[in-house]
Amino acid sequence: MKKSVYIPAVLCSALIATGCSENNKPEQQQTPAHTQNELTKPVVYQVFTRLFGNTETANVPWGTKEQNGVGKFADFNDAALKGIKELGTTHVWYTGVLHHALVGDYTDYGISKDDPDVIKGRAGSPYAIKDYYDVNPDLAVNVTNRMGEFTQLIERTHSHGMKVIIDIVPNHVARNYESLGKPKGVKDFGEQDDTSKVYDKNNNFYYVPGKSFQVPTDVNYQVLGGNAHPLADGFFDENPAKWTGNGARAPKPDINDWYETVKVNYGVKPDGSYDFPTLPKNIATKDYRVHYAFWQGKELPNSWYKFRDIALFWLDKGVDGFRYDMAEMVPVEFWSFLNSSIKMQKPDAFLLAEVYNPKMYRAYIHQGKMDFLYDKVGFYDTLKAIMQSKQPANTIFDAHKTVADIEQHMLHFLENHDEQRIASPDFAGNAVWGKPAMVVSNLISRAPSLLYFGQDVGEDGSENAGFGSPTRTSIFDYIGVPAHQAWMNNGKFDGAKLTNKQAALRDYYKAIMALNSLPAVVGGDMQKLNLTGSDRIVGFSRTLGQQTILVLSNFSEQTQSISVDLSQEQVTKLGGSSLIVDLLEQHQVELKTHSQGAKFNLTLDAFSSAVLTNKANNE
Q1: Average pLDDT taken over every residue of the chain
Q2: Could you tell me which of 379, 375, 380 has the C-alpha nearest to residue 364?
Q3: 434 closest CA partner among 420, 448, 418, 417
Q4: Alpha carbon distances (Å) from 262 to 96, 468, 593, 600
Q5: According to the model, what pLDDT value does residue 27 have?
Q6: Who wins on pLDDT, 34 or 163?
Q7: What count of other Cβ atoms lies within 10 Å of the Cβ of residue 272?
Q8: What DSSP state is assigned to residue 429?
Q9: Which helix (H) or strand (E) holds 150?
Q10: Residues 59 and 130: beta-carbon distance below 8 Å
Q11: pLDDT tens digits for range 42-75
């Protein structure tokens, strides 16, 4: 299949000097609609919503929201959104928006209490959704108007030229799912299930008939860290027991299972066979409209319709797309059904999926109609190993090559809520190590990039929040995020409390992301550079039309010197000039031409990078 190029045709007229000629038009096959009118490739800024605006610094392990504080939708004021936009952000992924199970009392608002025996942490996992038609009451200044406050945040985000993504978690829901916000006529998950059966096509859950659920136990774990709570009694009333979210079938899950959730049934029988139609091979890679037409008139499992209605509900609220949690645990046919339904209502919807099995990537992109998948197993894992000096720098090309045919669909990241912070001792111990990695991650391909809040100021995730261990900023408890709080500066979001090193790191991130407006970065072809002198430097070119950039990044703690050989074709693409300049740092390079091309020498300081081009191409 031909590769699509994520570059809008309007660039040809807007950036004449960079050379989109009539004979060098980018291909548009399968280009998602949401990229066609943008002068940049997508940048997703993931923010953990309840932590972003929190100014409290007590950070008591297992602390309540009164002790440790909690951020609100309202904290995303114009200054905050301007600061997010400065990082080149096109889409803000607000993590933890939907109403999930939490240890708090909102009975005054008609919300039932949640049992801490089946909650991880005190603030609760954002992936144990209690009500798909409501938002987390913790995030509202006025709980009664919580949905209104979120829709106002959507409007503010849009006013700053960014789009809104929220999570949908189709594989599982909270054990105590109960929707107060559902529209008239909508039934709760499990409300109409035949609980006498392990499985039925139209049951929303799987059951263990005749057995009651038992709370998992472990000698090394105490609910709420041992703090007293009237419902923390080692009992949760669920009869019959349901299968646990990760597929565990025992009425008493293991402590390491996703015991706070229950598995959703999509018509996959206990033996693994399917109770729904499969996609014909001849339409697998067809347009979403063909997929949508295929599913019309089919008799499909009830859970499929429930999640379709949920997704369309949030599109109606102004949400622009979704990040799908653990998408590979749900059949690809369901994604064809859901995503084609979404695209029929909003063709430019941004659809990002968490999939970790490389063998399934192409199925979820082509048959499942995903726009983007995580490039973790391969690119991220390799880049992390390079940063930790466990692999030579040029091994990143082998990782990239494995997804070369779908690289524009593979989202790159260095941090997210599941991964260790770069500055944590278990990863690199210093956020500066992330500088060359961010350059390579963002510039090596047409893949979109993801930034996690606090990454740009060196947050190290060292806080002991309660559930889980440090190195990852907690998603389970109320906590302050120190480096981020320094940039936040009590709601001014001006960075006034950052150290000089933190401020310099943020400026560097801004400079990297500003390069996303270059046509060669948005849609250029990548070619590995021929360099000698160090195995800690990555070097590659990106070329589109008459614009070429050369990217070189030093992953070493020491200064490294290299020689780079360019072919005659590469020299020509640089415009034939002997002087090329650095768009990122302050390097200047003089080409020494010879009969077969040119050569130049370059010295890069520790963790330094160069993004080189012929100045004439960028005036």
Answers
A1: 93
A2: 375
A3: 420
A4: 18, 21, 65, 60
A5: 33
A6: 163
A7: 6
A8: S
A9: helix 146-159
A10: no
A11: 999 999 999 999 999 999 999 999 999 999 999 9
Q: What are phi and psi of 165, to 5 degrees?
A: -120, 140
Phi-psi region of 389 (alpha: psi -120 to 50; beta: other; left: phi over 0): left
* b/e burial code for range 334-347 (CB count within 10 A of at least 16 → b): bbbbbbbbbbeebe
Tell me the H-state helices in 40-145: 49-52, 65-68, 78-85
* Confidence band of 2 (pLDDT split at 50, 70, 90): very low
d(CA 32, CA 349): 9
**pLDDT value at residue 21:** 35
At 603, the amino acid letter reads: T
Please say whether the beta carbons of 69 and 55 come within 8 A: yes
The answer to whether residues 181 and 99 touch, using CB atoms and an 8 Å cutoff, is: yes
What does each C-alpha distance from 443 to 171, 245, 490, 540 come to in angstroms? Answer: 33, 37, 34, 9
pLDDT tier at 40 (50, 70, 90 boundaries)? confident
Query: Does pLDDT of 452 surpass 60?
Result: yes
Q: CB of 244 within 8 A of CB of 238?
A: no
* Residue of 438, 454, 460, 457 lying closest to 503 (CA atoms): 457
Output phi, psi for 117, to 5 deg: -65, -20
* pLDDT value of position 24: 35
- Helix, strand, coil content of the chain in percent (nearest 5): 30, 20, 50
CB-based contacts of 299: which residues, under 8 Å, 6+ apart? none
> What was the pLDDT predicted at 616?
54
**pLDDT tens-place string over residues 237-283:** 999 999 999 999 999 999 999 999 999 999 999 999 999 999 999 99
Instruction: Tell me: pLDDT of 596 over 80.
Output: yes
Nearest to 246 by CA among 125, 78, 389: 125
Closest alpha carbon to 196 in 184, 208, 180, 183: 208
What is the rounded distance in angstroms from the CA atom of residue 197 to the CA atom of residue 95? 35
Tell whether the model's pLDDT for residue 490 goes beyond 50: yes
Is 212 within 8 Å of 239 (Cβ atoms)? yes
Alpha helices, DSSP H only, in 363-499?
381-387, 396-401, 434-443, 482-488
Inter-residue contact 522 to 553 (CB < 8 Å): no
Query: Hey, what long-range contacts does 390-393 have (CB within 8 A, 24 or more apart)?
Result: 392/535, 392/536, 393/534, 393/535, 393/536, 393/537, 393/538, 393/553, 393/555
Query: Which DSSP symbol is given to 231?
Result: T
The amino acid present at 19, given as its one-letter code, is G
pLDDT in the model for residue 15:
35
- Binned at pLDDT 50, 70 and 90, residue 23 comes out as very low
Cα dist from 57 to 5, 72, 485, whole Å: 46, 16, 9
pLDDT tens for residues 308-353? 999 999 999 999 999 999 999 999 999 999 999 999 999 999 999 9
CB 135 within 8 A of CB 172: no
If one counts every other C-beta atom within 10 angstroms of the C-beta of residue 230, the result is: 8
CA distance 424 to 365: 33
Q: Angle CA(191)–CA(195)–CA(198) in degrees, nearest 5?
A: 130
